[in-house]
Amino acid sequence: MSDTADRVQKIVVEHLGVEADKVTQEASFIDDLGADSLDIVELVMAFEEEFGVEIPDDAAEKIATVGDATKYIEEHKG
Amino acid sequence: MRRVVVTGLGLVTPLGGDVETSWKNLIAGRSGAGPITRFDTEGQKCTIACEVKGKDHEYGFDPDKRVDHKVQRQVDPFIIYGIDAAGQALEDAGLVDMDEELKLRTGCSIGSGIGGLPGIELESVNLHERGPGRVSPHFVHGRLINLISGQVSIKYGLMGPNHAVVTACSTGAHSIGDAARMIKDDDADVMLAGGAEGTINPLGVAGFAQARALNMSMNDRPTEASRPYDKGRDGFVMGEGAGVVVLEEYEHAKARGAKIYAEVVGYGLSGDAYHVTAPHPDGKGAELSMRMALKKAGLDPSDIDYVNAHGTSTMADTIELAAAKRVFGDDLGGASMSSTKSAIGHLLGGAGAVESIFCILAIRDQIVPPTLNLDDPDDGTEGVDLVPHTAKERAVHAVLNNSFGFGGTNASLVMKKVD
């Protein structure tokens, strides 16, 4: 697992209170990890904080899986 | 007429994370007070409180038992305490797994006096320092007072009335009284009713200190600071926690063979119409409230065996006692009256519910909890059994609980043993 993927997983585990092994790159925040739309807003804020990236609302709306988040962050982090 | 009985109890208090631990410690004469550990009290005029202890403490509270990790992260302490106490009450009543039909007839009336002050304080600083884009999306619903009732209804699928009282320190008593009426009015067969508070944060403590409501002279002697009816009393000690009861229509409870603790027979409400923080010196509002509760109960004042006083350890204790004497007689007609705030502090919006549960346990165990620190009783207390220092075994058939709040709001509940 890349460093980014590792850190994303940790944030998701902490925020959603789910088991780490469920937080695969394919896992959907809503369908697999029990998140709701507000949880995703909160997760996006946590990613922004952790990685120093800005994730605008239109980009955030396209983040459905853990992998989507990891990919976006890797492409945009400084 | 539909009768309302209590079939389940739940408590989170400074003396325990459940009913039996809290009660055992209360009866043993323990105090839940200590130096504030929750935050750095540097510069605060009051540095003591009755905190709910962590799970590693001998009588601490473990939020992981009944509150999801995710919810814990999103909401203020008062909501966590409330969800847990409601869960305990449902478990005690044997109603965790109720059928779909009963869920439609089961509601929640769990309020709070202040609500999510710690979260408001933190997010306000966050907004100021880091901007609006860093405010949590869970900020609003993690602080709202009706979100105990909301969270509990979601967790257990309860689709009956969803209500939340906000009447300062009368909240817990009003919540139970209002919920009992909802059952009487046939809005529901079962109601989870009670109150919670969790405002031991810098802003909460500073606010009450500035209002000159807190004891600020005994920071070095926390367990002695809450001393209702004592000449040396000098303000209340802040507590936190929650109390929730399961109220149930009597025939419904009987039909399912439920354990019945007591019947809620009287509910009185009034307003002082006087001052925002001080009670009216003539105590007329308190008297009206007690008299109304007794009248609704169809009981004579002499029928009451135990009064759980509002008794905050302030000058207002004198006013309440004088009002009680006018209602019950100079010796309170032989009733015992104690203030359990001497042990657990003032739970504000949770007080009326927690203290009603203590009243119910007094009926169950035929013992009344003590008023701690009553070393030098104030003038006017002569001839009244204020249960100083140690719990007292006695016959307890009917009880009255008083709760009064800022804004001049008063509530009294009368409960009695079901014969």
TrEMBL record, chain A:
This protein's record includes keyword Ribosomal protein: no
Chain's role: Carrier of the growing fatty acid chain in fatty acid biosynthesis.
One CC-aspect GO term: membrane
Name of the protein: Acyl carrier protein
PROSITE patterns: CARRIER (PS50075), PHOSPHOPANTETHEINE (PS00012)
Residue span, Carrier domain: 2-77
Record-linked Pfam families: PP-binding
Keywords: Cytoplasm, Fatty acid biosynthesis, Fatty acid metabolism, Lipid biosynthesis, Lipid metabolism, Phosphopantetheine, Phosphoprotein
Pathway it works in: Glycolipid biosynthesis; KDO(2)-lipid A biosynthesis; Lipid metabolism; fatty acid biosynthesis
InterPro entries linked: ACP, ACP-like_sf, PP-bd_ACP, Ppantetheine_attach_site
Family: Belongs to the acyl carrier protein (ACP) family.
Location in the cell: Cytoplasm
Major place of residence: cytoplasm
GO biological process per UniProt: Kdo2-lipid A biosynthetic process; lipid A biosynthetic process
HAMAP family: Acyl_carrier (MF_01217)
Residue numbers of O-(pantetheine 4'-phosphoryl)serine PTMs: S37
NCBIfam families, alphabetized: acyl_carrier (TIGR00517), PRK00982.1-2 (NF002148), PRK00982.1-3 (NF002149), PRK00982.1-4 (NF002150), PRK00982.1-5 (NF002151)
Post-translational modification: 4'-phosphopantetheine is transferred from CoA to a specific serine of apo-ACP by acpS.
Molecular-function GO terms, alphabetical: acyl binding; acyl carrier activity
Domain of life, per lineage: Bacteria
